[in-house]
Amino acid sequence: MNEIPPVPERISERKIIVYKSRVDPTIVKLTAEKMKYKLFGKFGFSKSRSEEIRVVSVDKYYEPYVLIDANYHIQYSKKRVYTLRVDPETEEVKIAGESYKPEMDSPSVESGASSKVIKLQAQMWSSYQDKAYLALDKEGHEIPHNQVPAAPSEDHPEEILNEFSKKTGLVNVSSQKEIELVKARIVKRPSDISKIEDELFHVSEHAVIYSPVYEITFRNVRTGEEKLVKIDGVTAKIIS
User: Fold this and answer.
1) Which residues have a Cβ under 8 Å from the Cβ of 229 and sit 6 or more positions away?
2) For residue 8, what pLDDT is reported?
């Protein structure tokens, strides 16, 4: 085909989803108090007595992740010409009711002699499909799916994000860039296509997930040194 049209697209609007916390802030603080006696050496206070380590704050914010679910399919044809050699005395060849007049082919490299041939034009139909489900961090880097927690969502996500806007992370990549990333992964269009019968790139899900995180600040009251520990607000696991 002389001019390849752009790939047809159906793109779902990017949604904002805020996960509910499954960990109570009071429980987080109590856990932090217990944790310091067991882990204060790991935090870099190895030369301090545990009673010198205090929990001075428990802050909550939301860490963003991007999820994209997309699929692609194409049905297309390619033109091919098949050359069939026929007997020298052949005047006409009939295939499936179609008549073909033989013509002289170029001389053979090996023998130098010409031969009679017929040329059959054909359309070869093929199809291709692929899909991808990507999870990205706030910088647009791909991460394992299991790194994104799962939890029920808040009914009013905008209000939650406004309340915790000071510390909540921002997605530092545009919606279009995210779509281009998954599109480059699955859209495979052969270069020698003659006709496209059906084609579609479809983003069925596109969402920014905000997952709660509790940030606990520990302080050595003798030296003033501080350390931070982050706890996943969905799984209650220590993440840093």
Assistant:
1) 32, 35, 43, 215, 216, 218, 238, 240
2) 96
What is the amino acid identity at position 44?
A: G
DSSP code, position 167:
T
pTM over 0.90? The answer is: no
Q: What is the pLDDT of residue 219?
A: 83
* Residue 40 pLDDT greater than 60, yes or no: no
- Average pLDDT taken over every residue of the chain: 87
Of 145, 163, 173, 146, give the one whose Cα is nearest residue 212: 163
């052969």: which residue's tokens?
A: 190
Q: What own/partner pairs with CB < 8 Å and gap ≥ 24 does 137-145 have?
A: 137/65, 137/66, 138/63, 138/64, 138/65, 138/66, 138/169, 138/170, 138/171, 138/172, 138/173, 139/172, 139/173, 140/66, 140/171, 140/172, 140/173, 140/177, 140/178, 140/181, 142/181, 143/65
